[in-house]
């Protein structure tokens, strides 16, 4: 077997065998295949997309290209959750304690953010002392003790995906559904989970801008997960407006904490409860989605989720007192209100513009090597359907300087559009995708 | 301008601007664009082929990516000749002295061979003392003095092509007509010629196996050359059987010499005369192909070409006496006759098998870094249409060892097939492609 023949097969649209994809994955993981050959294969795979079977094979081959987390000491089911990323998406931080409070064991690896979609690791890095470099053994010990553990990605899990992923941005091969699917699922499989809930974001602030594209991705994820033997439920959720009331790292942690301690309810809390309910149903702890949602909602209301969050923060080096009083989180020196110059009912809050403004403020990365300012960001005071009077505040900008804040404010005026009549509130969950009936390969 | 956007344009089939192709070429030449990005672009260009205009732009951009040979001190026209490569193709070695004897100025850069198609530089390397590292100034001085000069490729001409070419074999992007065309023509333009004769080989021993593929390549070469302002005539010539009576480096030099000194006539001499005639017509020294052919034939018969060859060998450090007596060329220790086990009329001598046997004997390269044995090779005693009796010799193998020779002999039996009735002699020139009427861009 040689890489030239594998590239030629993809180029000419001939099917790959599992052995070919395993050869490719191992060679990529070990650095034995040149980057330029991987890049040629990626472009050929972009233009001649992998079949569902090939996608599942690539997923399994990449999952097997390095170490795999062995969760067998922990009680089943082992659940994991993944979001395709969006503006203001701090869901993981609130969801994990809810799930643990409901009796699940959650072991999760998260990534850093790039561009307008932030990363959970960056958000939690704004918590003083919070450790995000747990070893596999520490992960397992902690999850066994308190039911949840979260860490940054370890280099030895799915190294083939790491190698291919690093090339995709530079080679124009990011937006290929089979490549996205195998990248997401290979890491999840290597991470040891057997049950997975996937939140596919859809809208201007997400990778998939419309429901058609999001559905295509979601169906491919469902099919590939089933072929790979992973119990996976999916929800397509709205990302046309920012999720919740904050965008920016420390601000989002604060919002997640306020959700956990019961001080904040709204679209963000609702999404957490819905996804937690779906997870409880997916994992078999509840016999219906509705029952799952009730149990998750109860965990938020009765303080169970907040108590788990305190244990979690303490276990990973953060101050558990933050859960009742998040005032010790970093704060930006400048706060600046952006007031409406129109009045009416909010028709749109463009999540893309909001995300770009936060990156401009220093709260996100344009390039992988950029540093992030944890304190900057936005409070989004209005959501679609809300009424606003002229002169009423739409956003609060948290900035490093006045000039940064003024630049952000100018840009943010474009983000909001108004209607004279009340717009329909957009649904939070656009679609549920049930597990595929495909048999594992 | 950035390379990611250029890759995305090619990937999505959007047209490139000249500026984009110049950016790509300069970046490739200077090593400022990563190999993996060039590879992704190459695969995208393979699957979404460049238009004729884009091909011409890439040609000009690559030609301009390094130095260009300035031939303005030499009398016009400045002619160059190129073959797409075949088994036993030693044409350049005989053609250049014929052209110089007819009054043309020929300045030529040649390459090394890879696989079954040998390279002129490798063949001439078998001549003791022959220099193939002339500087641009030495090339021009020599061509001004005796009308011809030949050297190996200098690294500073069309370095963008060098960078892309080096990636194409490893990335499965060799057999793209626009990429082949721009690679060939960019080097020719950088080499300073204004008139070009291209020999597009067609058949089992060539890169283009059938007339349809060869015609497609030839038409694209003609069109791109015209768009790039190069006066170019093309012939598609037969490469289904080996060209001439020898394959292997020193053996081919000997055959070329025997053609120049008048001792050998046959298909190979005929091709030289035809291509020389075409060149004289293309360069405007004769008003018809026929007149050009007559003049070239006369130069072979009246000793003019042989005298030029002596001057040439002397000028580049070889022994001019070789032209009258090539006995001092390297010879292999073992000669082994391959006798026919059938009888009848030769229907086919498979050039591909013959070429592969010579590579096996050590006369060609499988990989770029392989060393070549100048002395080994084959004499091909029969051509299509010849009669052979059972037991009559078909080939003489020139080998390093008896075991090498025996292995070659076994393989060569497959190369020849017979008919009971005489097969038609295959034509030497399959098609002439006149210059395209496209105006230069």
Present the secondary structure layout.
The structure is a homodimer of 441-residue chains.
Chain A lengths: L2 H9 L6 H13 L4 H13 L4 H12 L14 E6 L7 H11 L3 E6 L9 H5 L11 H11 L1 E5 L6 H10 L8 H14 L4 E8 L8 H17 L3 E8 L7 E2 L1 H12 L6 H16 L6 H13 L2 H12 L18 E6 L4 E6 L1 H13 L13 E4 L6 E2 L4 E7 L2 H14 E4 L9 E5 L8
Parallel strand pairs in A: 1-2, 1-4, 2-3, 4-5
Antiparallel strand pairs in A: 5-13, 6-9, 7-11, 8-10, 8-12, 9-11
Supply the key terms:
homodimer; 441 residues; alpha/beta; six-stranded mixed sheet; four-stranded antiparallel sheet; 16% strand
Task: Explain how this protein is built.
The structure is a homodimer. Chain A has about 450 residues and is α/β, with parallel strands linked by helices. Helices cover about 45% and strands about 15% of the residues of chain A. Chain A has 16 helices and 13 strands. Chain A has helices spanning about 5-10, 20-30, 35-45, 50-65, 90-100, 120-125, 135-145, 160-170, 175-190, 210-225, 250-260, 265-280, 290-300, 305-315, 350-365, 400-415, and strands at about 80-85, 105-110, 150, 195-200, 230-240, 245, 335-340, 345-350, 375-380, 385-390, 395-400, 415-420, 430-435. In chain A, the strands form three sheets. A six-stranded mixed sheet of chain A has the order 3-2-1-4-5-13, sandwiched between helices. Chain A has a four-stranded antiparallel sheet with strand order 6-9-11-7, with helices on both faces. In chain A, strand 1 (about 80-85), helix 5 (about 90-100) and strand 2 form a beta-alpha-beta unit. The radius of gyration of chain A is 22 Å and the shape is globular. The mean pLDDT of chain A is about 95. The interface between A and B is medium-sized, with 24 and 24 residues.
């Amino acid at each position: 077997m040689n890489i030239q023949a594998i590239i030629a097969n993809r180029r000419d649209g001939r099917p790959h065998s599992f052995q070919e994809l395993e050869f490719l994955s191992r060679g990529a993981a070990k650095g034995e295949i040149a980057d330029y050959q991987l890049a040629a294969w990626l472009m050929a795979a972009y233009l001649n997309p992998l079949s569902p079977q090939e996608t599942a094979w690539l997923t399994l081959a990449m999952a097997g290209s390095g170490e795999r987390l062995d969760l067998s000491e922990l009680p089943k089911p082992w659940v994991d959750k993944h979001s395709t990323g969006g503006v203001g998406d701090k869901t993981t931080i609130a969801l994990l304690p809810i799930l643990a409070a409901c009796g699940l064991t959650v072991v999760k690896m998260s990534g850093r953010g790039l561009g307008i979609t932030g990363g959970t690791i960056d958000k939690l890095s704004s918590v003083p002392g919070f450790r995000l470099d747990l070893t596999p053994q520490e992960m397992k010990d902690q999850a066994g003790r308190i039911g949840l553990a979260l860490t940054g990605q370890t280099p030895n899990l799915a190294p083939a995906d790491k190698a291919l992923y690093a090339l995709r941005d530079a080679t124009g091969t990011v937006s290929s559904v089979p490549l996205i699917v195998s990248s997401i699922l290979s890491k999840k499989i290597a991470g040891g989970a057997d049950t997975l809930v996937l939140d596919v974001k859809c809208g201007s602030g997400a990778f998939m801008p419309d429901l058609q594209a999001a559905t295509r991705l979601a169906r491919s994820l469902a099919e590939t997960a089933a072929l790979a033997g992973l119990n996976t439920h999916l929800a397509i959720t709205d990302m046309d407006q920012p999720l919740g009331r904050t965008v920016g790292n420390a601000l989002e942690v604060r919002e997640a904490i306020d959700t956990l301690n019961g001080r904040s309810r709204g679209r963000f809390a609702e999404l957490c409860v819905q996804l937690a309910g779906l997870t409880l149903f997916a994992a078999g702890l509840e016999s219906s989605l509705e029952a799952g949602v009730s149990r998750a909602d109860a965990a938020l209301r009765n303080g169970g989720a907040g108590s788990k969050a305190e244990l979690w923060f303490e276990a990973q080096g953060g101050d558990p007192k933050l859960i009742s009083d998040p005032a010790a989180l970093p704060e930006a020196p400048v706060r600046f209100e952006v007031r409406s110059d129109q009045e009416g009912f909010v028709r749109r809050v463009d999540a893309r513009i909001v995300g770009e403004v936060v990156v401009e403020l220093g709260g996100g990365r344009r390039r992988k090597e950029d540093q992030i300012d944890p304190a900057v960001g936005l409070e989004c005071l209005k959501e679609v359907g809300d009424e606003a009077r002229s002169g009423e505040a739409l956003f609060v900008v948290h900035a490093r300087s006045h000039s940064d804040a003024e630049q952000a404010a100018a840009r943010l005026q474009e983000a909001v559009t108004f209607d004279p009549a009340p717009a329909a509130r957009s649904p939070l969950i656009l679609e549920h995708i049930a597990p595929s009936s495909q048999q594992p390969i």
